[in-house]
Amino acid sequence: MGLRNARVRFDGAVAVPEAPNRCWLTSLTTAIGPVAREEIGRVMHGPSAWVAVMISHLAERVGRLFRIDQAIYPDHRLLSTSLYTPDRLTAVLAEEVRFADRAVLIRSLNAFSHRDILAQAYKRWPFRVVWIVGDPKRDWCDRRDARRDRVRLAQSGLRHDIHRNGLPEVMLTRCLSLYRSLYIDAYSRFNPDYELEYIQSLLAEGCLEIHTLSDATGIVAVCALHGNDDMLTVPMVGYDRTRPAGDGLYRSIMTVAFEAACAKGVALNLSAGAGRFKAHRGAKPYVEYMIVIDAHLPLWRRTGYSLLAFVLGRAEPHLLRSAA
After folding, report:
1. Which of 23, 77, 150, 238 is the most exposed place for a label (fewest CB within 10 A)?
2. Is 234 found in the same domain as 222?
3. Which ranges carry the BioF2-like acetyltransferase domain (predicted)?
């Protein structure tokens, strides 16, 4: 339930991926395999890229051999960033393991929000680099690019609407079409491909709110916001890619997200990618980690997570360099 490219069931607040599973949000072998190779192709060239691709293939095979996808994800709503307050994270780490044959994977930890937890002796994987604006009012509002973005949005004539409890099916279908055009068609088929009913359920729960920009023809840009008392994230973005790039729809819809964070007085996690765009708007890069809890598993299963933690740890310095 939830994704068109992965089968996931929920046990309370715990996401339990099952086969088939070809989404990086719920499959570690997909993340370190084909998704890593796509990213290598975008940011690396020459012999170093060939070496990195070979390492990715080897890591994927090791992962499948040691069944690293046989795992659970506490508090995972199938969004790009899982949010944990310090108290909730402490509670999750202290919970008894309910699935004896599965590792417990805690996603989306970074030094901005979880420095104390990361300093402890957990097995952790550096996963990607995310961009965080710690104080949007201080770090974003007065920047030249931010001022230009706000002027562009104000002069665009686009109508901004906020949808908190749900959308008519035709409108949500349009929103998902814009998202898929960007994140599935243009970026990667391994990105989360959401089912309409699942997004409606998140809206009904108050877990998401959807912001749209529209003109006389209908919705032309969309972003979904997910947050808690300390942080706002942007798990979905889309815009009409058939329009000229000069329309600035991406800049406009991201301005909506920045303004929402300012209004709420919280930090803004902009996820990975588009580093230059985000840095020019006050965001700073942070390595995002995943904690692996596997002490209850047999030695041969723990070995797989340990081997890959070692390999990824050696690659960590390259993450920040490639994100710049």
Report:
1. 150
2. yes
3. 143-278
Q: In sequence order, which ranges of the chain are alpha helices (DSSP H)?
A: 28-30, 36-43, 47-65, 86-94, 111-118, 136-139, 144-155, 169-180, 196-205, 249-264, 275-279, 299-323
DSSP conformational letter for 120: S
pLDDT in tens, 268-311: 999 998 999 999 999 999 999 999 999 999 999 999 999 999 99
Predicted local distance difference test score (pLDDT) of residue 324? 65
pTM value > 0.90: yes
Q: How many CB atoms lie within 10 A of CB 173?
A: 11
- Distance CA(252)–CA(257), nearest Å, equals 9
Position 85 pLDDT exceeds 90: no
In the numeric block, which tokens belong to residue 35?
Answer: 């998704």
Domain check: are 173 and 156 in the same one?
A: yes
Separation CA 97–CA 80 (nearest Å): 24
Residue 180 lies in a domain: yes
Q: Is pLDDT above 70 for 23?
A: yes
% of the chain residues with pLDDT over 90 = 83
Instruction: Assess whether pLDDT exceeds 80 at residue 321.
Output: no
Q: To which residue do tokens 């659970």 refer?
A: 72
Query: If you search the block for the tokens 């293939």, which residue do you land on?
Result: 57
Residues 92 and 160 in one domain: no
Which percentage of the chain shows pLDDT scores above 70? 99
Write the CB contacts of 2 (distance below 8 Å, at least 6 apart in sequence): 8, 78, 194, 195, 198
Long-range CB contact pairs, 261-266, < 8 A, 24+: 261/133, 261/136, 261/232, 262/136, 262/137, 262/140, 262/141, 264/227, 264/232, 265/137, 266/227, 266/229, 266/230, 266/231, 266/232
Same-domain check for residues 39 and 114: yes
- Nearest in space to 323 (alpha carbons), one of 53, 39, 129: 129
